[in-house]
């Protein structure tokens, strides 16, 4: 090795320390990888949407919140009931009025034991879908409890929507459509009967909610600085109840 170093010196290439080809190649590869990683991160950080809306699904366990979301995000349905543990989310970007809107949709567990964790997600929500099951009277009776939760934990100006899900099960219906319409009217909120299974009104409900939010959103575009995907996330500029 010493000999080679000496001979390079002699050849006038002494400023370039001895480096076997394999080492040089590895160095070049790692530099390329580094550059590729930087480019990939830059690409990911690049804004691919104009606005970010944070939505939340709430309602009793088993009413079909996860299925409603799964139908909207993946156009799929699962008959197996796998109760949500705590909280989950899906992302879907839609285009409304020429704007790319990234919907970050949080799916909460309906089980009471997750109440503390799920209510902590209300604060940053710009839209809340409150779901009941038209074949389950209890889930309808609990609507007032869920609305109280919204009043207590969500932003003042959160956009609310009521969904009566499983409307494909007409033979098992217990809650008349008129009752859903009435309670929604009393609280000044929109109402749809939906079916995640038969894909009825699912997309319409999400797009309507997004449109309603868009209508009252100040023209402030999402940037990496004003978007927060933690529990209190959403596009900033929204009033919150606390400080
Ligand atoms: N027939 C019918 N069944 C549905 C529909 N939506 C959901 N289900 C069924 O209802 C059950 C519960 O659905 P989930 O979406 O897991 O309920 P959830 O509200 O997310 O429940 P938690 O996660 O415990 O809060 C599953 O067996 C689904 O297949 C629907 O539109 N029609
Ligand atoms: Mg669920």
Can you put this structure into words, describing what you see?
This protein is an alpha/beta fold. The chain has a domain of 166 residues: 3-Layer(aba) Sandwich (Rossmann fold). It is 37% helix and 21% strand. It contains eight helices and eight strands. It has a six-stranded mixed β-sheet with strand order 2-3-1-4-5-6, with helices on both faces. Strands 7-8 form a two-stranded antiparallel ribbon. Strand 5, helix 7 and strand 6 form a beta-alpha-beta unit. The longest helix is centred in the first third of the chain and has 25 residues. The chain is elongated. The protein starts with a helix and ends in an 8-residue tail after the last strand. The N terminus and C terminus are likely disordered. It binds guanosine-5'-triphosphate and magnesium ion. Guanosine-5'-triphosphate binds next to helix 3.
| Category from helices, strands and their pairing | alpha/beta
**CATH level-1 class of the domain at 51-216:** Alpha Beta
User: Helical stretch count?
Assistant: 8
In total, the number of strands is 8
Contiguous uncertain segments of 5+ residues: 1-17, 224-243
GO molecular function: G protein activity; GTP binding
Cofactor: Mg(2+)
Protein name: small monomeric GTPase
Organism: Danionella cerebrum
Element layout with pairings:
Blueprint: H1 2-10, H2 21-45, E1 51-58, H3 65-74, E2 87-96, E3 99-108, H4 115-119, E4 127-133, H5 137-141, H6 143-153, E5 159-165, H7 177-186, E6 190-193, H8 202-215, E7 227-228, E8 234-235
Parallel strand pairs: 1-3, 1-4, 4-5, 5-6
Antiparallel strand pairs: 2-3, 7-8
The structure holds guanosine-5'-triphosphate (GTP) and magnesium ion (MG).
């Amino acid at each position: 090795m010493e000999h080679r170093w000496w001979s390079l010196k002699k050849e006038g290439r002494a400023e370039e320390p001895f480096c076997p080809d394999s080492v040089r190649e590895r160095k070049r590869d790692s530099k390329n990888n580094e550059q590729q990683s930087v480019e990939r991160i830059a690409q990911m950080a690049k804004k691919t949407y104009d606005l970010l809306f944070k939505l939340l699904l709430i309602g009793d366990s088993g009413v079909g919140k996860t299925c409603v979301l799964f139908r909207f995000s993946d156009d799929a349905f699962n008959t197996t009931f796998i109760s949500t543990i705590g909280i989950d989310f899906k992302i879907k970007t839609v285009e409304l009025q020429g704007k790319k809107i990234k919907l970050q949709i949080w799916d909460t567990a309906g089980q009471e034991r997750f109440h503390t964790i799920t209510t902590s997600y209300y604060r940053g929500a710009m839209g809340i879908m409150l779901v009941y099951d038209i074949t389950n009277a209890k889930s309808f009776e609990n609507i007032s409890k869920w609305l109280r939760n919204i009043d207590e934990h969500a932003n003042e100006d959160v956009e609310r929507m009521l969904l009566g899900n499983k409307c494909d099960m007409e033979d098992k219906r217990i809650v008349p459509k008129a009752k859903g319409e009435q309670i929604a009217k009393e609280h000044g909120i929109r109402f749809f009967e939906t079916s995640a299974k038969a894909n009825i009104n699912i997309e319409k409900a999400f797009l309507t909610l997004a449109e309603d939010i868009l209508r009252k959103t100040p023209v402030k575009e999402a940037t990496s600085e004003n978007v927060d995907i933690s529990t209190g996330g959403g596009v900033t500029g929204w009033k919150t109840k606390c400080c």
